[in-house]
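Weekly modeling sync, notes
Attendees: S.R. (lead), two postdocs, one rotation student

Agenda item 3: backlog of single-chain predictions. S.R. asked that every request posted to the team notebook include the full sequence so nobody has to chase files. The rotation student volunteered to paste the first one in as an example of the format we agreed on. Action items at the bottom.

Example entry:
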Amino acid sequence: MDPSNSPGEFDYLFKLLLIGDSGVGKSSLLLSFTSDTFDDLSPTIGVDFKIKMLTLGGKRLKLAIWDTAGQERFRTLTSSYYRGAQGIILVYDVTRRETFTNLSDVWAKEVDLYSTNQDCIKMLVGNKVDKESERVVTKKEGIAFAREYGCLFIECSAKTRVNVQQCFEELVLKILDTPSLLAEGSTGVRRNIFKQKPPTDASTSSCC
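Predicted structure, as returned to the notebook:
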């Protein structure tokens, strides 16, 4: 039975979005969280999408996690996927300085531009801590960025699975603590969340 067709199987449905430069490990993080495996994946084309069932705080949760392409040429395809997201995970590679710099130069601006939830919870993730000897972005810098932009912060490794589960769980727990996002997760977001492409009548069905 397809769980996506069984609304009674969960209490809340949350839409999460992974963003960041190409190659920072967004798809690997998602795979590590949803299937407990790790692969060096080729860059995402447009948007990938996975479902994860989770029980947290006594609530049965269904997470619809959207993995966006980091490459410039796909950027226009992904703007509509920000709509209705309760959580946004900004990922950088601790071994590549430009992926961290681009968070403020590119990605944080996109969140401001496209996010439709003013209470949306943001999580900053420094990935690839298994490559400690190649690190160029310090944990202190990550903490400072998170404080400036109002994000949660964690460092993890998709490869060794260090902090991967914790990353998603901390984000979801924060969403559960936010009444406006909780209300949305129990009702409105179920509309078109499982469709790969925005509906043709998106302009009329959008609430805002």
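Discussion: group reviewed the output briefly. The radius of gyration is 16 Å.
Action items: rotation student to repeat for the remaining queue; S.R. to check formatting next week.
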